[in-house]
Amino acid sequence: MNEQLIVDYKNFLNNGKTERECVQQILAMARKAGYKDISKFKRLKTGDKVFITKMNKSVALFEIGSDMLENGMNILGAHIDSPRLDAKQNPVYEKDNVTYLNTHYYGGIKKYQWTTLPLAIHGVVCKKDGSSVNVVIGENYDEPVFCISDILPHLAQDQMKDKASDFIKGEDLDVILGSVPPAKKGIQQTAEEKKDAKEKSKKTVLALFKEMYGIEEDDFESAELEIVPAGKARDMGLDRSMILGYGQDDRSCAFTSVAAMLEVHAGKRTTCCLCVDKEEIGSVGATGMASNLFENMVAEVLSRTESEYSDLTLRRCLANSNMLSSDVNAAYDPLNAGLYDKDNASALGGGVTFQKYTGSRGKSGASDANPEFVAKVRAAMYDANVNYQMAELGKVDQGGGGTIAYHAARYGMNVLDAGVAVLSMHAPWEITSKEDISQIFDCNRAFLGLN
Q: N or C: which end of the chain has fewer CB within 10 A?
């Protein structure tokens, strides 16, 4: 097992709880390895290492190989967004002496899992003057944390009759920011004191935001604040064989893709590591894989390498490329064995998980890899002594899920889903095996060297 890789991975999780924070870390790693912003280059030659970012939430790394780009690249693709809560546009309000942050959940979550947890706020606030402020509250031991309250069991008779999907409403996932004591009875107040007492808790909270970050209430209109579990990734189990941490879907794959990209030098084929946003909500938006994001990035590279850039060259480059779409799979759970076809399930510690197809039920929304490409990847894993397993996500008709693979496949390239097995996927705290993290790093290195 690669012990240093595991240490670096946990640090990546701890310091990358949002897409922006992940991009910042990836760029720091890339610059240290000699990568430069593509805008610094008029022409690219063999061995050049460049990066391209989009809105500080998606990033691609390229190392130029000796072959013409129209013959294709070897690509590692992953996403860096994770399920969470987002602050609404007008988020701060007071109700009966308690101040809340109004939220909208992001991605597929079980809402009840987010109550009574210590939570942290991460994000950016952009002001009208063009400046921006990074916000992180709740990660250091001496900082306050936040929480969503729940009903005590003694009063929860009606709540417990609801389905699990209903007994915590989305509009009830509001985070407690502060509180003040109610007005004391029997004490006379002046008109001025009564005026000051109105929304006193909210005023106190907003004053603290202004003191700490220079933020006014209307600045939240142009903010991107994400509420995530507070705390660090930890070794799990007495044998320390596992990792418990937030956001391992899909940062386990993103980190190991970047780490492999920085270690392997491109040979004949140009190599690429792509880390995108918005996968958890359908890969939408300008920073998601469903947009023209990736082809625009490749076009920027092609325009600096080909003597005559053309749309046909771009199309050939994408169609002739190979990609591992790196995303996690549901680990076999012995306590819920009925949800899995055990012979086609991924096990914690079983090595890299390859999924020939994803999707739901009748493979809806799937990318289904060609067996010729699967065989080529298998051969590469054998040569590199990488342990792997073939799996799908649960029993047929039980559920399913998608990745960025089918967005890449629309270019005509070879795509195969590859990742690690995760227990408690999409929960605030997810479980992976250290062995699997180490194996997928080796897998990614071997894949980048494919001819």
A: C
